[in-house]
Amino acid sequence: MRVNKAVICILVAMVAVTPCILDVSSTEPSPLGTLITAALDP
Q1: Burial classification of residue 42, based on how many CB atoms lie within 10 Å of its CB (0-12 exposed, 13-18 middle, 19 or more buried)
Q2: 17 alpha carbon, distance to own chain's centre
Q3: How far apart are CA 30 and CA 19, in angstroms?
Q4: pLDDT at 13
Q5: What gap in Å lies between CA 39 and CA 23, rounded to an integer?
Q6: Would you give the DSSP letter of residue 6?
Q7: Dist CA 8 CA 29 (whole Å)
Q8: 7-38: buried (b, 16+ CB within 10 Å) or exposed (e) per residue?
Q9: pLDDT tens-digit map of 1-42
Q10: pLDDT at position 42, please?
Q11: Is 22 within 8 Å of 30 (Cβ atoms)?
């Protein structure tokens, strides 16, 4: 199965930007934001 590289790039970009969006849109910590932040920070 071939996956378009552009799709992968978009998904990676979305995952990278999501914590910033969650920080701006919600003042209270969200489980999803915490998970993504924990996953991105070693």
Answers
A1: exposed
A2: 5
A3: 10
A4: 85
A5: 16
A6: H
A7: 27
A8: eeeeeeeeeeeebeebeeeeeeeeeebeebee
A9: 688 888 888 888 888 887 776 666 555 555 766 777 777 776
A10: 66
A11: yes
